[in-house]
Input
Amino acid sequence: MLGLVLTMLLVPAIPTFTQAQVIKSGPSSCPGVALTFDLCPVRNGAGYDQALIDYLIEQKIPATFFMSGKWITKHDQQVRALLLVPFFEVGTHGEVHAHLPLHSADEQKQEILGPVRLLKAKYGHDATLFRPPYGEFNDDTVNVARALGLQFILWDVVSGDPDPTLTAIRIEDRLKRLIRKGSVIVMHANGKGRHTQEVVQDLHQQLLPRRNLTPMTMSDLLICNGQAAP
Output
């Protein structure tokens, strides 16, 4: 995710048909935003931002998590804890965080299905939201996700939280420029974001209240009819 902004700038123009199948934000009339957190596999560290999760729970802030299969297999206790929180939502993020466009449609299907099957078989959870690793996809990715009955979720606001060169203030300044009604914000809960908890606290206590915006789960944002969820 460190080169996410550059990657997105370099991706060729996407055909209109494909764009129509990809969700980047909620309704522009909705006074809410979705705080979304990727749980990608990590090579070093705990792979879990406990302080961030504790803050979200303490403040009862709705959030959506996208788990990779590899991350799930190493974090059984954390998966169970997240699934128990009524204002959290859990989607999937591929099996091993692969670059999907480099693979065939069949290979992409197996990569996408891995964590979906695991969450259902081991935890009894039906995951219907899917976010492609690195935000990379092609027509095959979209078609496979649609055929599997998954909603294809991207974002319209990149926090940049895994970038070690970004301070909390710089991340917050970026969010102030980009966040609007219906925004989907991508962050990380796998410990890669050094300032994620601090940024979320600022969002919750200052930026969102000032703009009369309410945090929502991704699913609630998508059905928002212009009113904040109770």
About this structure: The beta strands are 32-39, 63-67, 88-92, 129-130, 151-152, 157-158, 184-188, 214-216. Confidence is low (pLDDT under 50) at residues 1-19. The domain at 33-222 is CATH 3.20.20.370 (TIM Barrel). The longest helix spans residues 105-123.
